[in-house]
Every structure is written in structure tokens, then in C-alpha cells.
Amino acid sequence: MAKPWLLLLALLSAPVLAAPQVTFTTSLGPFTVELNPQQAPITVNNFLRYVKDGSYVGSQFHRVIPGFMAQGGGFDADLKRLNTYRPIKNEAGNGLTNDKATIAMARTQSPNSATRQFFINLADNDFLNYSRNSAGYAVFGHVTSGFDVVESMAKQPTHSVGFMKNVPTTPIVIKKVTYTP
Question: Could you count the other beta carbons within 10 Å of the beta carbon of residue 110?
């Protein structure tokens, strides 16, 4: 029979697994997000699929609203829509909230429609959280470094392009994406 104190010692000395991280190098500089696969496994796996296939490189932050969020990943530098994989199940009820510096999946009005677009919250956006009355937007990580780069996106001039509003006048392009498991 195992002694309880040995089990506790084994648990305390077990290595802590680091959360996966993704660093985006943009035309304004780099920022890093730490992902939360424990609370958002479907969303993290989906996001990493685009990271690993390299298709975020060359995409841009196409919607930036000061005091709200910076959205990217869905359009190239010429605002051409990028190909997507199938939409995923909305994990907004995972307990993570749309707080400042968190990363969440963008979607249409249909809750289970997220594909490749994501956004970084520039403020606490409680109205985007899951609730009894709202499907919410699934948070799946947070910015751990370079949040000043994300904040600088909101200082860039924007304009409308066709039906799209709040498009940075000078494209904010993702030049490189580095994944650290």
C-alpha cells in the first residue's frame, strides 16, 4: 500500500508542463500568446492547425477598434479572404473571459462558425463572454509579451474598404509565426 506522503511528494516534484506559445512577428513588432489547451482544446487545436500550416503568415489585422479589439488572420495583405478549414464548436463556456490581453476566436452570428480569424482584446469586454443569454466568444489564451505592439495597432489610422470598417490604412501584416510546444 502506497504511503500518502510519497504520493504527495511525487505530485509536488512532477515537472510542470509549459503551455504552448505562439509568437507573431508583425509589421509593427512581435507579440506572444500563451494558449490554454486544458480549457479550450478544440479552439487551441484549430488555431494551431493554421499556425502549423503557415497560413497566418502574410495575413493582416484587418479590423482594429481602439478600446475594443484587434482582429486578424482571415485576409491577406490585399484583403483577399483566406481559405479555411471547417468551422469548430464554440467553447465560450470554458470559464475563460474576454479580459484585456486575451485572445479569442472571431465568428459570425452563428455560435459554431469560428474558423481562422481571431482577436486580441484591448480592454475587458465582458459583453463578449458566454452567459445564459449569449453564446459568447471563445477565449483560448492570453498575450504574455508584446502587448504594447497590439496596443500600437489601435493607434494606427483606419478607413473603410467596401463593407469592411476599421481597416488599418497601412496593413498590419503577420510576417512570421513561431510555435513553441
Answer: 10
